[in-house]
Specification:
There is one protein chain. With about 80 residues, the protein is of the alpha+beta class. The chain has one domain: 2-Layer Sandwich (Metal Transport, Frataxin, Chain A). About 40% of the residues lie in helices and about 25% in strands. β3 and β4 form a beta hairpin. α1 packs across α2. The longest helix is centred in the last third of the chain and has 13 residues. The chain is globular.
């Protein structure tokens, strides 16, 4: 992971949860961490990382991820043993 990916990872784990993290930055960080990302139907994105799988929805009409999705991503990353 490069410095930008580590910054995105730290932002996901900040409290209170942020609502200004761009989804494309999260996806780039996940790929750098070794995740496999595949397209689902509609705005769904399937992610597999370290044996843990999850489905997320890409935000639409905005490029930033909302607080609820950031909290879900944090739980997913904790399950996959990826933390700052």
């Amino acid at each position: 992971m490069n410095n930008k990916h580590r910054k995105t990872l730290r932002a996901i784990f900040e409290e209170p949860a942020r609502s200004d993290i761009e989804w494309k930055a999260i996806e780039a960080m996940l790929v750098a961490a070794g995740a496999e990302i595949s397209e689902g139907s509609g705005s769904r994105v399937r992610i597999a990382l370290n044996g843990v799988r999850a489905v997320f929805h890409r935000p639409h009409s905005r490029k930033e991820t909302d607080r609820g999705a950031v909290k879900s991503m944090r739980r997913f990353l904790e399950s996959a043993q990826v933390m700052p």
